């Protein structure tokens, strides 16, 4: 299944790349962190790598390493404003649990698959 963006997330990505003055897409990834195991990380992509998979939605692009596609499969990314804070919010069907503060999550993926992260 693809990874999709809401119109708000696409607009935010486009604005950030325009503000930056260059860039092809937003890279999404996960790393081990927090009390539940993982957290999302973001970076800009100026050029594609061989191991990258590109997704486009609402004229904005995101990039994910092919090895990590299963962690994001079927996800929708939104951009939300809550009070003074704004952030990308994931609706990720691969998340098993989240911690109480919402900063980290665990995956439904078997432990042996986590070695690729």
From TrEMBL:
Highest rank taxon of the organism: Bacteria
InterPro entries attached to this UniProt entry: ATAP, ATAP_core_dom, Fe-S_cluster_asmbl/transfer, FeS_cluster_insertion_CS, HesB-like_dom_sf
One Pfam match: Fe-S_biosyn
Start and end residues of each Core domain: 1-103
GO molecular function, one term: 2 iron, 2 sulfur cluster binding
GO cellular component: cytosol
UniProt record, GO biological process: iron-sulfur cluster assembly
Recorded family membership: Belongs to the HesB/IscA family.
Alphabetized NCBIfam families for the sequence: iron-sulfur cluster assembly accessory protein
Name by which UniProt lists this protein: Iron-sulfur cluster assembly protein
Organism expressing this protein natively: Nitrosomonas communis
